[in-house]
Amino acid sequence: MTAVPGQRSTTVSSSVAGQAAEEDLRALFGQSIAVFASLAGPTHVVESANPAFFAAIGNERARTGVPIPELMPELADQGFIALLDEVYRTGEPYTGRDARVVLGAGPHAREAFFDFTYEPRRDASGTVAGILVIGVETTQVKQAQRLMVEHRAMLEQIARQAPLTEVLGGMARCIENLAPQQMLVSVLLADPDGRHLRHGAAPSLPDFYNEAIDGIATGEGVGSCGTAAHRREPVIVTDIATDPFWDDFRDLAERAGLAACWSTPILARDGGLLGTFAMYHRTPRVPQDTDLALARVFAGTAALAIERHHVEQAKAAAEARARTAHEELAKAVNAERHLRAEAEQRAAAAADLADRMRAAAAAQAARPHPEHCQLGGVQGCTAPARIKVADSWGDAAWGCEAHVEEAILNVRSVFIASEELGGLAAYLNR
Q1: In 365-395, where does DSSP find H-type helix?
Q2: Could you tell me the end-to-end alpha-carbon distance of the chain, in angstroms, rounded to an integer?
Q3: Strand 415-418 vs strand 235-237: parallel, antiparallel, or unpaired?
Q4: In terms of DSSP bridges, do strands 94-103 and 45-49 run parallel, antiparallel, or are they unpaired?
Q5: Angstrom distances, CA of residue 399 to CA of 34, 356, 425, 426
Q6: Strands of the 128-137 sheet, one edge to the other
Q7: What is the second-level CATH architecture of the domain 142-287?
Q8: pLDDT tens-digit profile of 219-274?
Q9: pTM of the prediction?
Q10: Higher pLDDT, residue 418 or 320
């Protein structure tokens, strides 16, 4: 027989008391969030069930009068049909805690967790006639607990300024572990101009794939990520093989074994593009509400990590510029000190040479052409005096080539005054 979900269905029983008890259960669980189903016979035919039961297994399967193995064939390989058989055979109830079950198949399959009881239902003679299934779905609580633990760890990483690659790589692995089915996560980072996306983290995607999409442009129809970045909104591609957004990347995705890609833009607080957060699947798949919520949570966390990284980069760059400016200033100060010291040395040398020339000029009054160089200073110079030099004051002296050159370079207005003894020629050909 068929019962409309949400309404009571009547089950024929030889026991009036048993029928009343079942009616009470149906009334109790009719509008409850707890799942309830009444199964009959050794094949576990669904006699009645409340809306929460059908919502859990998928409302498209809301039928009664059908054996559970036929209504939910995926349970057979997960051991739940065997448990029903055992309870029906022994008459002993069974209780499960946080039992994991994959409901449905293909793109619409989802992971769920339940606390449940299989309670044997007996007829008037005490023989087991069926099983009552009563449970509470704990999927959201389970996922929330796992998510909180992982999310807290990520926030701690960001707070201690862990490298961005470490944070994003850890986030990707965390989501892959949290996902009910195999999922591969990728984070792409936007260039400063927002026109291209660069590899950020994708620990489970093949290297050739990451290298191929590194630097892809942002724009309409450029895969899931390029389009999401361009639109600034999520882009859900449930089947890469047929979606036009993937025309230019379909062969690449096929090589990597990718069949679906859901991409969410990572946005800064001011709305600027920071990157994209993508979830890949090996088979075509439609996202559940929990998948989309997970993407939003971690896209926000990734935004926090990336913005923090940008702040640290800007701070480091400013500090580097300050250090460079300080070093350049120190170099300039040292150079100025060196030049000043050289200038002082040259001034001292010039003064000394000028004194020598004055002394030599005074000596020439008695001896016009000395034999030895007159510009050697206190220590003197025994080299032949071959070149005569003078200054604008009229002082003149004879010197060797080396001291004459020193005087010309260091004493203002000194010039070669005579070509006697080959003076100018000797200086030019020294």
Answers
A1: none
A2: 126
A3: unpaired
A4: unpaired
A5: 117, 10, 14, 11
A6: 45-49, 35-40, 128-137, 110-122, 94-103
A7: 2-Layer Sandwich (3.30)
A8: 999 999 999 999 999 999 999 999 999 999 999 999 999 999 999 999 988 888 99
A9: 0.48
A10: 320
Question: Could you report the per-residue pLDDT of 152-201, keeping only the tens digit for each?
Answer: 777 777 777 778 888 888 888 888 877 766 889 999 999 988 899 999 99
Query: Strand runs (DSSP E) across 234-390, as ranges?
Result: 235-237, 260-267, 273-281, 387-390
Contact 260, 266 (CB under 8 A): no
Q: Which of 73, 87, 69, 196 is nearest to 133 (CA)?
A: 87
Whether 16-137 shares its CATH topology with 142-287 is answered: yes
CATH of domain 16-137: 3.30.450.20
User: What does the buried/exposed string (b/e) look like for 182-203 if buried means 16 or more CB atoms within 10 Å of the residue's CB?
Assistant: ebbbbbbbbeeeeebbebbbbe
Residue type, 87: V
What is the Cα–Cα distance from 408 to 193, expressed in whole angstroms? 61
pLDDT value, residue 421: 43
Alpha carbon distance 191, 316 (integer Å): 19
How wide is the angle at C-alpha 224 spanned by C-alphas 219 and 226, nearest 5°?
Answer: 25
What tokens were used for 274?
């920071």
Using CA atoms, how far residue 342 sits from 133, 354, 378, 403, 408, in Å, is: 100, 18, 22, 19, 17
- Per the model's pLDDT, the better-predicted residue between 237 and 344 turns out to be 237
C-alpha to C-alpha distance for 367 and 396, rounded to whole angstroms: 12
Count Cβ neighbours within 10 Å for each residue of 389-421 and write b for 16 or more, e otherwise.
Answer: bbbeeebbbbbbbebbebbbebbeebebbeeee
Instruction: Read off the tokens for 269.
Output: 């607080």
Angle between helices 164-178 and 139-159 (to 10 degrees): 170
pLDDT at 11: 37
Long-range contacts, 19-26 (Cβ 8 Å, 24+)? 22/121, 25/132, 25/134, 26/50
Where is pLDDT greater, at 100 or 143?
100
pLDDT of residue 419: 53
Mean per-residue pLDDT over the chain, rounded = 82
**Cβ(64)–Cβ(49) below 8 Å:** yes
For residues 173, 262, 250, 214, the Cα torsion angle rounded to the nearest 10 degrees is: -60
Per-residue pLDDT tens over the stretch 292-336? 877 887 888 888 888 888 777 778 778 888 888 888 888 888 888
- Domain residues of the chain, as ranges? 16-137, 142-287, 342-428
Sequence-distant (≥ 6) Cβ neighbours of residue 173 within 8 angstroms: 185, 203, 204
Answer for the pair 302, 266: CB distance below 8 angstroms, yes or no.
Answer: yes
